[in-house]
């Protein structure tokens, strides 16, 4: 029996022999399906999507080029929505158990399935937090207002500008505009710079203590450990959003920045 699960850039079909990946036409990974037998899968890595970063499921196969980014890897499925994450939470344990053989598959009993279903119901019951494509969902202005809560054009044309971003028709998303002036909310916040400087001077001693106590800590319910494991399994990944997620969760310089693939510019990680 085969079961098909929906990913964010294609479908994953699991049957008794292996997995088949069928990507959407706009995913840029080709139209041919990719079938991988269980015996040819070394491991499966699953990174849940973070507040500003996408998630992925990668089926590692001998001979894979570890330098290929997940967005281009035909053995990798994009996970950006709660529905895709819930689906991955079901098929990843199933694939891993089938890789280990019949005894491991049998161990995936009803209690485990009930736990997965319960987690899925809880996740699906929460309303999805929507953000315009390309806009970090949790990024705040100086006023405390979320960037995603500003008024964005409903049907932007190519290079339409709004709030320091411009619309890319090619990528179908908003892209940071480095030449744009501060947004209205940011200009209001800048009026308080003088007061903020005084507060910063008073708090600098406390900030130093907090900083050295925080660096290297896993402050997001295991998110740092999960991201560290992701980079260990996918050393070629240079996604800027995942790098930002890593810096926030781990308080450390992300591996793509250490290797020189990304640089920090204006508070964001970007390609060289």
In DSSP terms (H or I, runs of 4 or more residues), the helix count works out at 8
Distance between the termini: 47 Å
- By secondary-structure content and strand pairing, the structural class works out as alpha+beta
Share of β-strand residues: 15-25%
Task: Calculate the mean pLDDT score and round it.
Answer: 76
- The gyration radius over C-alpha positions equals 21 Å
Overall 3D form: globular
SSE diagram, text form:
Elements (H helix, E strand, L loop, with lengths): L2 E4 L3 E5 L3 E6 L10 E4 L5 E5 L7 E6 L15 E4 L2 H19 L1 H6 L2 H16 L35 E2 L2 E4 L4 E4 L7 H7 L2 H22 L8 H11 L6 H11 L4 H4 L3 E4 L2 E4 L1
Antiparallel strand pairs: 1-2, 2-3, 3-4, 5-6, 6-7, 8-9, 9-10, 11-12
Keywords:
four-stranded antiparallel β-sheet; alpha+beta; 12 strands; 272 residues
What does this 3D model show about the protein?
Strand 11 (262-265) and strand 12 form a beta hairpin. The strands form four sheets. This protein has a four-stranded antiparallel beta sheet, with helices on one face. 24% of the residues are buried. The chain contains eight helices and twelve strands. By secondary structure, it is of the alpha+beta class. It is globular.
């Amino acid at each position: 029996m085969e079961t098909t699960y929906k990913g964010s850039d294609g479908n994953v079909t699991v049957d008794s022999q292996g997995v088949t990946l069928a990507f959407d036409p706009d995913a840029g990974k080709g139209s041919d399906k990719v079938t991988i037998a269980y015996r040819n899968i070394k491991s499966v890595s699953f990174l849940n999507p973070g507040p500003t970063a996408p998630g992925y499921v990668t089926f590692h196969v001998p001979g894979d080029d570890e330098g290929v980014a997940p967005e281009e890897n035909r053995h990798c499925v994009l996970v950006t929505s709660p529905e895709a994450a819930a689906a991955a939470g079901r098929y990843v344990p199933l694939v891993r158990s089938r890789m280990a053989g019949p005894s491991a598959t049998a161990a995936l009993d009803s209690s485990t399935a009930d736990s997965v279903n319960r987690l899925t119901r809880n996740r699906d019951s929460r309303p999805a937090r929507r953000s315009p494509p390309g806009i970090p969902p949790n990024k705040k202005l100086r006023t405390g207002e979320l960037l995603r809560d500003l008024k964005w054009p409903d049907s932007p044309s190519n290079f339409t500008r709004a709030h320091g971003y411009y619309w890319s028709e090619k990528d179908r998303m908003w892209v940071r505009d480095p030449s744009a002036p501060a947004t209205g909310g940011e200009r209001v916040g800048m009026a308080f710079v003088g007061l903020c400087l005084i507060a910063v001077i008073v708090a600098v001693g406390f900030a130093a203590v907090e900083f050295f106590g925080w660096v290297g800590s896993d402050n997001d319910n295991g998110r740092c450990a999960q991201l560290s494991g992701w980079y260990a399994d996918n050393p070629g990944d240079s996604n800027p959003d995942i790098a930002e997620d890593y810096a926030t969760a781990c308080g450390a310089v992300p591996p793509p920045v250490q290797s020189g693939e990304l640089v920090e510019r204006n508070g964001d990680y970007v390609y060289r």
